[in-house]
Specification:
Layout (H helix, E strand, L loop, with lengths): L3 E5 L1 H10 L6 E2 L1 E2 L1 H5 L3 H10 L4 E4 L2 H6 L8 E4 L8 H6 L3 E4 L2 H10 L4 E4 L11 H4 L9 E5 L11 H17 L3 E3 L3 H4 L9 E2 L15 E13 L4 E2 L5 E2 L4 E6 L16 E4 L2 E6 L7 E4 L10 E4 L3 H8 L3 H6 L6 E4 L1
Parallel strand pairs: 1-19, 2-10, 3-4, 4-5, 5-6, 6-7, 7-8, 8-9
Antiparallel strand pairs: 1-11, 11-14, 11-18, 12-13, 14-17, 15-16, 15-18, 16-17
The chain binds pyridoxal-5'-phosphate.
The site of pyridoxal-5'-phosphate has 12 residues, from helix 9.
């Protein structure tokens, strides 16, 4: 059994999902990249039980990894059907989000099953151009959701938001899809104009954007040592004990997504006491000054990992931090 635990608070996940729901629109959930590193299957199960009906992954592999989806849910694959993927797509109950004229043509030639379509309104990432979407390319297609994606939603006052909204409204009015969807987490915060029929939040569900924390990291004390004043800890001997100190060496490091920059100012909580990290973060280990506690070898400690603070300290986004937690944790759901 791994000596690292990533505990997912599913009540917080569900609370975050409810908190971003918008009047008049269904609230979906992006569970790509294995649920932003926290576990896609378990995320789907928890959110479906709470009433979420729409889920999004990036690829057919991610769709297959989810296995049988809960009843009355729909799974959409954001990258659509790339070359060589049609057999996998047709074997899956998931729905593609078609992004290019070639994807649309291939889908039309292969099946009359429903699909979603992405139209690019300015992010210049994936999707048909508005001209392509309005050219008749989609006529006769069993189009369920027409999607677009915002480039600058994290900046509420950015001119791109209103510009993309206006373009999307025009495309929706012309194409007349069954449903329309524009907002991810940041777009939801822009307000009711951005709601349309369905939203696609991801990061806000997992504790980003000021949501309730969802992921908790716990690791074990491999060794406790007593240092004399003047002794140093770790690579580069960057920290020295000012007095006799008890140091706990804990089996978590930067390979577990705990960035080196989180060492200074970081802590572990042991027996309810926050203990400062000392010395450099190693690949597999951190050290904490536990002089104020009775922590012993084999004890579990909680590793401080506040998403917003960690993002500010490291300069990495909340997305990178979550998806970078690595593969050495035993995940638990409570
Ligand atoms: C990842 C993704 C989302 C979710 O984005 P968040 O910023 O995590 O809310 C929604 N829509 C699309 C197209 C995406 O790629």
């Amino acid at each position: 059994m791994p000596n690292l635990h990533l505990t997912v608070d599913t009540a917080a996940l569900v609370a975050n999902w409810r908190a971003v729901s918008m009047a008049g629109a269904a609230t979906g959930a992006a569970v790509k990249a294995d649920g932003y590193g926290l576990g896609a299957r378990e995320t789907v199960a928890a959110l479906a039980a709470a009433g979420c009906r729409e889920f999004f992954v990036a690829s057919w592999d991610e769709a297959a990894a989810l296995g049988t989806m809960p009843a009355r849910t729909r799974l959409a694959v954001l990258h659509g059907v790339q070359d060589g993927e049609m057999a996998a797509a047709l074997a899956s109950p998931a729905v593609p989000v078609l992004n290019t004229p070639r994807q649309v043509a291939a889908w039309r030639a292969a099946t009359d099953r429903p699909c979603d379509v992405m139209v690019d309104t300015g992010i210049n990432r994936l999707g048909l151009t508005p001209a392509e979407a309005g050219s008749g390319l989609l006529d006769g297609l069993a189009l369920d959701v027409l999607h677009s994606h915002l480039a600058c939603a994290e900046t509420p006052g950015h001119a791109m938001n209103a510009a993309q909204l206006a373009v999307f409204r025009a495309v929706v009015a012309h194409v007349r899809p069954a449903r329309a969807s524009l907002a991810a987490s940041a777009g939801i915060a822009l307000g009711a104009d951005y709601a349309f029929d369905l939203t696609r939040p991801g990061i806000a569900l997992y504790g980003g954007r000021g949501g309730r924390p969802v992921a908790r990291l716990e690791a074990r004390v491999v060794q406790v040592r007593t240092l004399a004043a003047g002794d140093s800890v770790g690579y580069g001997a960057t920290w020295r004990a000012a007095r006799e100190s008890r140091i706990a060496v804990v089996n978590l490091g930067y390979a577990d997504g705990f960035a080196c920059a989180l060492g200074p100012g970081g802590n572990v909580v042991a027996g309810g006491v926050a203990c400062p990290l000392v010395g450099r973060v190693s690949m597999d280990l951190i050290a904490a000054d536990v002089t104020a506690t009775h922590v012993a070898e084999g004890d579990w400690v909680q590793v401080g990992f506040d998403l917003a603070a960690a993002a500010a300290t490291t300069g990495r986004s909340e997305y990178e931090l979550l998806t970078g937690l690595g593969h050495r944790y035993a995940r638990a759901y409570e």
